[in-house]
Amino acid sequence: MSPRGRTSLTTLVVGVVLFSLLWIDRAERTLLPGRDKTEALLSPELPGHDRHLNESRASFAHYLFPVNDPEHADIWELENRRTVQALFTCLEESNCAENQTKVVLLDSFHFRGALLGWDGGEDLWARSTVLALNSLSYSILYSAVDLQRTIQLYRTFPTLIIMVILNPDDVDRCFNSPNIMCHKTTNNPEGIPAWKIFSFNWWTVGSHLLDERWILSPEKYRGLGENHTYFGYSVETSCETRTFVPHEDRRAHPQIYVMGKNGRYFTAGHRAWEPQELELAAAAIQQRSIVSPEAQEDARQVLFLAGLREDELPDDFIRGENGGSEWIMRNLGHLTPTKFYDTLAKSVALVGMGAPGTSPTPYDALCLGVPFINPIHIWDHADPSNRLGWAAQHETLKFLDPPYVYNIFVGDTHGFVDALKSAIDDPIESFVPETMRMPSIEERVGRILRTDWEEAAHELVEGRRLMGEGKINEAIPKAFQVKSCLTGNPDQPSTIRSYQFALPLQANTVISVSRYHLSGPQGVVGGTLRITTSTKLPSNSARIVVVPASLGYATVCSLAPKRGSDTSTAAFGVFATGPEDAASEHVNMTLILPASTNLAGLQTTLPNFAYNIDDLIGAGVDFVGAAFITGGEKPIMVKSISAPSRLLLSTWNASVSVGLARSSALDVSTGSDHFSSHVNASISGRYESNNLRLITGNAPINADVSLAPGFGGVDAYTSNSSLSLNISSLTSNTNDDPPLYLRLRAVTTDGAATVRLPVEYEGHFRLSGASARVREPKRQGDLRKVEYHYHGPALVATAAEGDSQAVEGTREEDQDTDDHEEELVTGSVYLTEEGIERGWVSVLAAGAGARLVL
After folding, report:
1. Which parts of this chain are annotated as the region Disordered (predicted)?
2. What is the CATH number of the domain that holds 397?
3. Are strands 636-642 and 609-615 parallel, antiparallel or unpaired?
């Protein structure tokens, strides 16, 4: 074995000992109960124990990292075991693949979501990344639900891990929360080197201690985000499984799919195209000789389709006046992935309605031979052909031309109608941009992983030192320039009570308020950001009010886009400009938004800042796209906030409390580690979302969750504390509502877990804990039936339905309270036989009681 192999093996063996201590203890109790450790490890029952040592190396690795443990359902844990098992074996046998000893540590929950089949944009990107890494034979480790686990994993394999990919909020925590002991410094020599840390950032706005090259992007952005490192993703794996629908079949009964999962995208002031424009397009398509005779006779044969997950279409999409009842557009409701792709594949065009921005759906459409109508919200009227001056729904595809993409200015009715006619007259075959094909992605990912990032970081830091430390213009994204600044000076405190910065707003503006890192040692900056509204502000302007006396040694600046760069972001920066030991911890800022306004999105990245968010929904503020609220070791308090496309509320070891948060995809994370108190990272409040994730540790979760009819997913994780979810359904009590399809997983340890389900729920359930209790339906008029498949010790294989081991009396009042062993209860609740497969609910409370209220 080569010296390098011996070094890697030594590192791995040491790491294995640390990595597997907890698992070995659990394995001994689970697989070999009643035996002491010595007997378990030397048992002749172990595979290969009575064989020669050289014949048992692989078996030892297989025993140490089993991949068939039925008690571990988390797929990423099993993947980690497979990886370490294979790595241990190949190093021992000196037959590792070319890149197998190079480990990439994936922290972002989107990588775990990719394994579970989530279908969001970031999840598709994560899936492509994993496919590329596997194809290149790199070893992959998945981190758990908190940053502390990522740090522990890195410290276990520091010389083998070449890259750590974190969510943007975890990147900020890593660099700005010294108590986490995350990144390598003189005071934390065992931390992760900054040059190994990369941000997995879907959006154009982000920050990193080094520079923008350490931000990974799914798109090759131009303008804002153009200096990010382009990873890219592919839709080929989902597209290639679909049958290509011949264009003559599509034109026989033309249908046009309108992109948008939320009914608010279609409301006046939000939508790119008016209902009358859709009717004009349908009439124009009707006249085409290539469509069917039925469609030529009646423009209503030309269908506009949408699949809304939340809300309904506005009434102004009803055809005709005086109470007409025929819809111009048909809402298909929440579509399964299969139904969505089938519907899209039969369409003659995909129409963007203005939001969400930069979605994967247009790439799916192009791959299926469906052209995309890309609305342009903002353009330079003096130079309308300058695409860098455009603010489009899809910022990357605005650089493509017909017949693939038709970029149409909002308000250009003739252009919109002509684009749809051209899409039918000049159809396209399957088209995937070359940069989005898997071979290109593999080549690019391989090149990025082979880059000497340590040397690049050294050159960057040395260059900053030579140019002079503390230059703000060197710290901000290259697409921006400083507009105006205010610097604190504790030695000469200001007499001005408040100072206002104006942020210009347009129809598609994203507001960004971020902490940026200067080169060299820095002090601490923290404080409070209040987000509120005012009816006195004009709709084209927001304000940030700063109390100068609160700045300490901090500096705040408004930023303006450079000429020719992206014009759709209103940016504000916070900087630590004092000495290294300076602490500016009481910075007082207020972001004031105009009431009754529509914004593309909001992104705040302020570690060590507390947030106080007023009633934005009540004031009529709607973030048409996404809102990312990222803090640090101070709480987030929200009265109400709505972001239809995506909403993130994130702290580190600090609580999140919400009056109402609403989004189609909602993530709440407090990043608590296992050494924090049981109350300082709690999650509480009311959440309206059909795709909700609540993640904390050592702190309780107490949430009311409202789901729209159709498909819903809820994941809640904590540890050493209680978990309570009260699920309700936002039904309209009409027969038009689709049934509820719910997937719910609630996990805690050493704390009780209680889940209350709505009367609409039908499906399976699984409870595991020191005690497992089910409260059967007791509400008047609830006719659902309950069947129990298994009740017994959790370590016993689940009995099949109808097995004689199944326990009859599993009602809550019939159970004893003996909690000396883990119990498992599985069953189903349903009104009709068809309802049995509509849902899956899993409640795990290791070491405490699991309770389900039906």
Report:
1. 799-821
2. 3.40.50.2000
3. parallel
